[in-house]
Amino acid sequence: MAEQAVSEVPMNYPATASRWPVTIKQLILVVGLAGAVAAAVAVILWSQSPSYVAVQAGMDDRDGAQVVALLQSNGIPYELNGASGAVMVPASRLNEVKLLLAEAGLPRSSAGGMDGLRDGSSLGQTPFMENAFYWQALQIELARTIMELRPVQAARVHLAVPARSAFLRNRQSASASVMLEMYPGRVLDRAKVAAVVHLVASSVAELEPEQVTVVDQRGDLLTNASGDDAAGVGASQFEYTKRYEQLAANAIEAQLSPVLGASRVRATVAADLDFTVAREVRKTFDPNNSVVIAEEQENETRRGELAGAGIPGALTNQPPEAPVAATDQAATSQTISSSSRRRSNFDVDETFRETQLPTGTVRRLSIAVLIDNKAATDAGPGEPLTQTELDGLTELAKRAVGFDEARGDTFAVLNSAFLPAAKIGKVEPPPIWEQGWVWDVARQLSGVILVLLLALFVVKPIVKNLTTPEPPQLLPGGTMGGMPGMAASQMPAIPQGYDERMAAARTVINQDPRQVAQVMRNWTADPNE
């Protein structure tokens, strides 16, 4: 039976089934252990590293370089996104970085501009493409210039410049549109809007200021597109009136606040201003102050016969007779007449005066002042002001705004207790899941949990398999892998100590030397044979 068991075992079995599978298995376990350790280290590093977010998307390289220099000077860590090139900072310091960028006025520029013409030029460009690149660069440069204004956060400029034509009737005028985005709480007054309009018009040839349109981010038209100045004049007059009323109210409050205390007086002024445009022309003469500017004298002397007398009739209508020689008697009948005329031109003192009357003069003021009671003390609430005190404060307020009763100005003052200002409630903190530190702690806890799971379910089984000896495998025919022909029930327990193993080996040799010789022969056999 022992021979039959030996014949069923392959000759190269110990070399293939006992040595190589164990080595490969140990190698796989070691590789798995190394991978688990590497994964644990990666998880720990990930849990300890801060999360980075982009500062602002769409920044060009010039702004990015300035932002990086600012972060380096302030000692703030940063990273550059390899895909988009965006500058990224820790999420916990994002607000601090935004404040630093706002203080430094970054980012300032946008991509392109005149600098991009050199980079984008090529030998095969058509004139149309060159012209398009030029106008695009000019638009970007104008937008950068407009963004230098403090109230403007962003700007875009669009230019519509028609192609030049040799025919006058086909020529079209250029136009432009400007889109402005203001900072929160900032506005552009009409003077700054006019400055933007003239800036754009002066940068493009043959562009009239009337052809420039300015719009803000809310869709409000900041320029007058109709060409009629009446609306613009009305808006400027309204703005001037409101500014005058605000200045007058501020003057009253500034005059009374040192006496009453801060926030204890309110003033309102309604002004009626005269914006009539008038011109006065006056011409005066002074008759007592005259001079001769031209003098002309004329003397005239005439010689001739006496005029005919009598009733005109047929004889007088006859043609004259033939002349005859003059005689002494005819000579004595001639007469002499003389006349003298003198003309003198005098110029009187004349004064011509043209006066442009001022606009925006005050027609009437309506003033209302509300005064709080005296400051409250520990003894009780504040007391009202006396009539003498009210009269004194009224006189101060009238002098502060130039009150004129003859002009029709009115003034009203009221002393009443102000309601206490509503207390600002406590600002509730954001929910715990919206706070940044919660996510950091959660990331660290998740890293610890992942490391524990790797240690319990990956590292521990691998270490156990490496340190625990493999039990003998049952081969076909009921024999064990270590002893051919020996049944599993006949296989003694494997001793643990060295001496016990040696004693067990001697016992096996003494009991069945033939099987031991076969085992030794199989161990030393060449596996390739």
Secondary-structure content class? alpha+beta
Regions with little confidence, pLDDT below 50 for 5+ residues: 1-20, 473-489
Q: What is the end-to-end distance?
A: 26 Å
Computed CA radius of gyration, to the nearest angstrom: 57 Å
Binned strand content: 15-25%
> Which strand order does the major sheet show?
1-3-2
Number of helical elements: 13
| SSE series | HHEHEEHHHEEHEHEEHEEHEHEEHH
* Helical residue percent band: 40-55%
The total strand number stands at 13
Average pLDDT confidence is 75
Largest sheet: 3 strands, antiparallel
What would you call the shape?
elongated
Task: Walk me through what this model shows.
With 529 residues, the chain is an alpha+beta fold. The chain is built from 13 helices and 13 strands. The chain has helices spanning 2-8, 13-48, 61-73, 94-104, 115-120, 127-146, 190-203, 229-260, 328-332, 387-401, 436-467, 498-511, 513-524; strands at 52-54, 79-80, 87-90, 152-160, 175-182, 212-216, 265-274, 279-304, 335-356, 361-371, 410-415, 474-475, 479-480. The longest helix is centred in the first third of the chain and has 36 residues, at 13-48. 9% of the residues are buried. Residues 1-20 and 473-489 have low confidence and may be disordered.
Keywords:
13 helices, three-stranded antiparallel β-sheet, disordered N terminus, single chain, alpha+beta, 529 residues
